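Here's what a typical entry looks like (Methyltransferase type 11):
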Amino acid sequence: MNPPVTDMQLLGQLLRCPSGIYAKEVGEYTFFSNRTMIFNTIDCLSLLPNSNVLEIGFGNASHLPYLFEKEPTIHYTGVETSVEMITEATVNNPELVAQQSVSFLQVQPDEKLEFNILFDVCFSVNTLYFLKSPTRYYRNICQLLKPMGKVVITLIDKSVGEKAPFAQVGFKFYTVPEVRKILSRIGLKNIKEYTFEETLVSKSGKKIRRPYCIMMGEK
Protein backbone atom coordinates (compact mmCIF):
# COMPACT_ATOMS: atom_id res chain seq x y z
CA MET A 1 0.00 0.00 0.00
CA ASN A 2 1.37 3.43 -0.93
CA PRO A 3 0.75 6.83 0.64
CA PRO A 4 -2.31 8.47 -0.97
CA VAL A 5 -0.50 11.78 -1.54
CA THR A 6 2.82 12.67 -3.14
CA ASP A 7 3.15 16.14 -1.55
CA MET A 8 5.39 15.31 1.42
CA GLN A 9 4.45 18.35 3.50
CA LEU A 10 0.77 17.55 3.04
CA LEU A 11 1.41 13.93 3.95
CA GLY A 12 3.13 15.08 7.13
CA GLN A 13 0.10 17.18 8.06
CA LEU A 14 -2.21 14.25 7.41
CA LEU A 15 -0.09 11.88 9.49
CA ARG A 16 -0.34 14.29 12.41
CA CYS A 17 -4.12 14.53 12.08
CA PRO A 18 -5.83 12.59 9.24
CA SER A 19 -8.66 14.69 7.85
CA GLY A 20 -10.62 15.44 4.72
CA ILE A 21 -10.81 13.27 1.62
CA TYR A 22 -7.54 11.46 2.38
CA ALA A 23 -8.33 10.57 6.00
CA LYS A 24 -9.44 6.98 5.44
CA GLU A 25 -6.49 6.17 3.16
CA VAL A 26 -3.98 7.80 5.51
CA GLY A 27 -5.41 5.82 8.42
CA GLU A 28 -5.02 2.58 6.47
CA TYR A 29 -1.51 3.50 5.33
CA THR A 30 -0.44 4.43 8.86
CA PHE A 31 -1.65 1.13 10.28
CA PHE A 32 -0.05 -0.85 7.44
CA SER A 33 3.34 0.83 7.86
CA ASN A 34 3.33 0.79 11.67
CA ARG A 35 1.56 -2.45 12.50
CA THR A 36 4.73 -4.34 13.50
CA MET A 37 5.64 -1.53 15.90
CA ILE A 38 2.10 -1.49 17.29
CA PHE A 39 1.90 -5.26 17.77
CA ASN A 40 5.32 -5.36 19.43
CA THR A 41 4.20 -2.58 21.74
CA ILE A 42 1.06 -4.51 22.68
CA ASP A 43 3.19 -7.58 23.34
CA CYS A 44 5.15 -5.56 25.93
CA LEU A 45 2.10 -4.39 27.90
CA SER A 46 1.69 -7.54 30.03
CA LEU A 47 -2.00 -6.80 30.57
CA LEU A 48 -3.85 -8.18 33.57
CA PRO A 49 -7.58 -9.04 33.60
CA ASN A 50 -9.90 -6.03 33.84
CA SER A 51 -7.09 -3.53 33.26
CA ASN A 52 -8.00 0.03 32.36
CA VAL A 53 -5.98 0.88 29.23
CA LEU A 54 -5.45 4.34 27.76
CA GLU A 55 -4.03 4.87 24.26
CA ILE A 56 -2.85 8.19 22.87
CA GLY A 57 -3.45 8.41 19.11
CA PHE A 58 -5.17 5.20 17.99
CA GLY A 59 -5.54 6.03 14.28
CA ASN A 60 -8.11 3.78 12.64
CA ALA A 61 -7.80 1.30 15.55
CA SER A 62 -7.28 -1.75 13.32
CA HIS A 63 -4.98 -3.09 16.03
CA LEU A 64 -7.67 -3.42 18.70
CA PRO A 65 -8.60 -7.04 17.88
CA TYR A 66 -4.96 -7.96 18.55
CA LEU A 67 -5.01 -6.00 21.81
CA PHE A 68 -8.17 -7.76 23.00
CA GLU A 69 -6.78 -11.15 22.00
CA LYS A 70 -4.07 -10.53 24.59
CA GLU A 71 -6.62 -9.83 27.33
CA PRO A 72 -10.34 -9.84 26.45
CA THR A 73 -11.46 -8.31 29.77
CA ILE A 74 -9.67 -4.96 29.47
CA HIS A 75 -11.48 -1.62 29.43
CA TYR A 76 -10.02 0.50 26.63
CA THR A 77 -10.10 4.29 26.24
CA GLY A 78 -8.48 5.91 23.21
CA VAL A 79 -7.97 9.61 22.51
CA GLU A 80 -7.48 11.11 19.05
CA THR A 81 -7.33 14.57 17.50
CA SER A 82 -9.00 13.39 14.28
CA VAL A 83 -12.80 13.07 14.08
CA GLU A 84 -12.38 10.98 10.94
CA MET A 85 -10.22 8.45 12.78
CA ILE A 86 -12.87 8.09 15.48
CA THR A 87 -15.36 7.28 12.73
CA GLU A 88 -12.98 4.74 11.16
CA ALA A 89 -12.19 3.17 14.55
CA THR A 90 -15.91 2.75 15.23
CA VAL A 91 -16.50 1.15 11.83
CA ASN A 92 -13.50 -1.16 12.23
CA ASN A 93 -14.52 -2.45 15.68
CA PRO A 94 -18.31 -2.94 15.70
CA GLU A 95 -18.33 -5.81 18.20
CA LEU A 96 -16.10 -4.05 20.72
CA VAL A 97 -18.20 -0.90 20.38
CA ALA A 98 -21.45 -2.86 20.83
CA GLN A 99 -20.02 -4.55 23.93
CA GLN A 100 -19.00 -1.13 25.30
CA SER A 101 -15.48 -2.46 25.77
CA VAL A 102 -13.98 0.58 24.02
CA SER A 103 -14.39 4.32 24.20
CA PHE A 104 -13.08 6.67 21.49
CA LEU A 105 -12.70 10.34 22.44
CA GLN A 106 -11.69 13.40 20.45
CA VAL A 107 -9.20 15.75 22.11
CA GLN A 108 -7.26 18.81 21.08
CA PRO A 109 -3.49 18.54 20.52
CA ASP A 110 -1.61 18.74 23.84
CA GLU A 111 -4.90 19.00 25.73
CA LYS A 112 -4.80 18.16 29.43
CA LEU A 113 -6.74 14.94 29.90
CA GLU A 114 -9.22 14.36 32.71
CA PHE A 115 -11.05 11.13 33.51
CA ASN A 116 -13.08 9.82 36.42
CA ILE A 117 -11.07 6.59 36.43
CA LEU A 118 -7.41 5.71 36.83
CA PHE A 119 -5.50 3.62 34.30
CA ASP A 120 -3.23 0.61 34.67
CA VAL A 121 -1.31 1.42 31.51
CA CYS A 122 -1.07 4.21 28.94
CA PHE A 123 0.59 3.42 25.61
CA SER A 124 1.28 5.34 22.46
CA VAL A 125 3.04 4.58 19.17
CA ASN A 126 4.58 7.31 16.98
CA THR A 127 2.80 10.26 18.59
CA LEU A 128 5.57 11.72 20.75
CA TYR A 129 6.85 13.77 17.79
CA PHE A 130 3.72 15.95 17.73
CA LEU A 131 3.67 17.10 21.37
CA LYS A 132 4.72 20.67 22.11
CA SER A 133 5.81 19.75 25.63
CA PRO A 134 6.22 15.98 26.17
CA THR A 135 7.26 16.52 29.79
CA ARG A 136 4.12 18.46 30.65
CA TYR A 137 1.89 16.11 28.68
CA TYR A 138 3.21 12.93 30.25
CA ARG A 139 3.25 14.46 33.73
CA ASN A 140 -0.52 14.78 33.24
CA ILE A 141 -0.67 11.15 32.04
CA CYS A 142 1.21 10.09 35.16
CA GLN A 143 -1.51 11.66 37.29
CA LEU A 144 -4.07 9.45 35.52
CA LEU A 145 -2.26 6.22 36.42
CA LYS A 146 -2.89 3.89 39.33
CA PRO A 147 0.03 3.21 41.67
CA MET A 148 2.46 0.95 39.75
CA GLY A 149 0.75 1.98 36.52
CA LYS A 150 2.87 2.05 33.36
CA VAL A 151 3.62 4.47 30.55
CA VAL A 152 4.74 2.81 27.30
CA ILE A 153 6.04 4.98 24.45
CA THR A 154 7.20 3.64 21.08
CA LEU A 155 9.31 5.91 18.91
CA ILE A 156 11.44 5.85 15.77
CA ASP A 157 15.11 6.59 16.25
CA LYS A 158 15.83 10.31 15.85
CA SER A 159 18.59 9.74 13.29
CA VAL A 160 16.12 8.01 11.00
CA GLY A 161 13.00 10.06 11.68
CA GLU A 162 14.64 13.37 10.88
CA LYS A 163 15.52 12.13 7.38
CA ALA A 164 11.92 11.29 6.45
CA PRO A 165 10.81 13.67 3.67
CA PHE A 166 7.30 14.03 5.13
CA ALA A 167 8.63 14.92 8.60
CA GLN A 168 10.45 18.17 7.88
CA VAL A 169 7.66 20.36 9.29
CA GLY A 170 5.69 19.77 12.49
CA PHE A 171 7.69 16.80 13.79
CA LYS A 172 10.23 16.71 16.63
CA PHE A 173 12.17 13.48 17.04
CA TYR A 174 14.02 12.32 20.14
CA THR A 175 16.88 10.06 21.08
CA VAL A 176 16.34 7.27 23.58
CA PRO A 177 18.37 9.10 26.28
CA GLU A 178 16.21 12.20 25.77
CA VAL A 179 13.02 10.20 26.28
CA ARG A 180 14.53 8.43 29.27
CA LYS A 181 15.20 11.87 30.77
CA ILE A 182 11.57 12.88 30.19
CA LEU A 183 10.26 9.74 31.88
CA SER A 184 12.63 10.21 34.81
CA ARG A 185 11.73 13.88 35.13
CA ILE A 186 8.04 13.09 35.63
CA GLY A 187 8.86 10.58 38.34
CA LEU A 188 8.61 7.24 36.56
CA LYS A 189 10.79 4.41 37.83
CA ASN A 190 12.13 1.09 36.56
CA ILE A 191 12.53 2.53 33.08
CA LYS A 192 13.16 -0.16 30.48
CA GLU A 193 14.06 -0.03 26.81
CA TYR A 194 13.40 -2.62 24.11
CA THR A 195 15.08 -1.99 20.76
CA PHE A 196 13.90 -3.33 17.42
CA GLU A 197 14.66 -2.91 13.76
CA GLU A 198 12.54 -3.51 10.68
CA THR A 199 12.92 -2.99 6.95
CA LEU A 200 10.28 -1.11 5.00
CA VAL A 201 9.94 -0.84 1.23
CA SER A 202 9.28 2.62 -0.20
CA LYS A 203 6.97 3.44 -3.08
CA SER A 204 9.96 3.31 -5.43
CA GLY A 205 10.96 -0.13 -4.12
CA LYS A 206 13.85 1.14 -2.02
CA LYS A 207 14.46 -0.75 1.23
CA ILE A 208 14.50 1.49 4.28
CA ARG A 209 16.01 0.43 7.60
CA ARG A 210 13.89 1.62 10.54
CA PRO A 211 15.21 1.13 14.08
CA TYR A 212 12.78 1.92 16.88
CA CYS A 213 12.50 1.62 20.62
CA ILE A 214 9.72 0.73 23.05
CA MET A 215 10.26 2.56 26.34
CA MET A 216 8.43 1.74 29.53
CA GLY A 217 8.31 3.45 32.94
CA GLU A 218 6.42 2.65 36.13
CA LYS A 219 4.67 5.10 38.46
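The radius of gyration is 16 Å.

More examples are in the samples folder.
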